Amino acid sequence: MEEVKIGIFGGGTVGGGIVEIIESKREHFQKMTGKNLSVKTICVRDLDKPRDFAVPEGCKVTTEFDDILGDASLDIIVEVMGGTTLANDVVCTALGNGKHIVTANKALIAEKLAEIESLVIDVNKDREGDDTVEFRYEAAVCGGIPIIRSLQSDVVGDEIEMLSGIINGCTNFMLTAMDVYGKSYDEALSEASDLGYAEADPTLDVGGFDARSKLKILMRLAYGIDVDEDDISCRGITELTKLDFQYAKMMGGTIKLVGVAKAVSDGKVAAFVSPAYITQSDSLFSVSGATNAVELISKNLQTTTLIGQGAGRFPTANSCINDIVSLAKGDKTPLPFNPPADNVQFVNNYESNFFIRLKYRDALGITRQVGEVCEKYGVSIHSILQNPITSRDDAAFAIITERVPISSVKKFCAEIEDLDWCRGPSFYMPVLREDWESDLV
């Protein structure tokens, strides 16, 4: 039986999961592909580190990159080592050598996708049919959810009007704990750390930066636009309090960290990552724990929602395996990369209804001053929420606005925070609900 020889960079959580699935499903994969999948070499950082998986018989474990990159017999190279610098060297060298690549490296894809696209096109310009090189990265975004394949293969004749989703499992777990179980932010983070959802330094997750990287990748596939991550409006969950969830429940909904991108008139695309108020009728409302979900709104299919585990050993490894098996079968990605858009412009301002929470020390004239600042920046008030006051020196209320650009909200909050009665920074987030549907401008 023909053998498909595989080299893996990374023998950690995901790399071990890939090996385990290949070994446990060997006969199944043979029936599917007519070939024997064989892990020949695993490159690791430390040979003495204990492994939580069995190394296949005859498989070489090494610290030398060239044991994989210099092996002409290998068919597929899997990169799950993490990081960007060394990983980029591995990917580019392997592609240049005519090897298929499978990766789960979100940071690499977000930073280098455009360059890798160009390299793949260049490598394949003199190749035809089965000889062409494939670059697969399904596992890089939302782990076990096949969102990359969907954008590459299932909507090629469609037009994506909007994509939105819960694309970070750690923060969704934390927000579920705060909403359902009344945990504080610190309590929720501690629990997420204990369960392995949060890294030792959780900044990328709780700051919204992990979700922003994923959103950038999805935007490249959905709209053919390459955006600088720093240009995408990004707000994490660190400022959320129990009080915000109380207000959300008063309105009949909850709070989720979402990534949203939308095509707007005149060839513009806008996007943001932010906590957002979600109504009970929204498909994202019931997505709890570490689960991820992505909703696509398109011209032909209208609404498509994909829900599943976004991270972890086997969800991520499973997506890598899907890519490996597809390559072993000789499948070709119908549209590996959406053509770069010539006339699409990214704009980092968006319009929505907003929730604005203000803390204050009780004083005369607060309502009048808030109204004056609202008028100054064109912020119309839809409603005001407030719990009974227990301390006049440390109280709070929330404003729900009519639709307004986020730029106006930022100016409003900055001026309010300079007033004597305002206690500390304000907090704002978009309100996403059917009768107040967010629009991006």
Structure description:
The protein has 441 residues and is of the alpha/beta class. The chain folds into three domains: 134 residues, NAD(P)-binding Rossmann-like Domain (Rossmann fold, 3-Layer(aba) Sandwich); 167 residues, 2-Layer Sandwich (Dihydrodipicolinate Reductase, domain 2); 82 residues, 2-Layer Sandwich (Alpha-Beta Plaits). 35% of the residues lie in helices and 25% in strands. Strands 7, 8, 9, 10, 11, 12, 13, 14, 15, 16, 17 and 18 form a twelve-stranded mixed β-sheet that branches. It has a six-stranded parallel β-sheet with strand order 3-2-1-4-5-6, sandwiched between helices. Helix 4 runs parallel beside helix 5 and helix 13 packs antiparallel against helix 14. The protein is elongated. The N and C termini lie far apart (57 Å). 43% of the residues are buried. The model has no long low-confidence stretch (mean pLDDT 92).
CATH topology of the largest domain: Dihydrodipicolinate Reductase, domain 2
Distance between the termini: 57 Å
Biggest sheet statistics: 12 strands, mixed
- Summing up helix and strand content along with how strands pair, one would put the structural category as alpha/beta
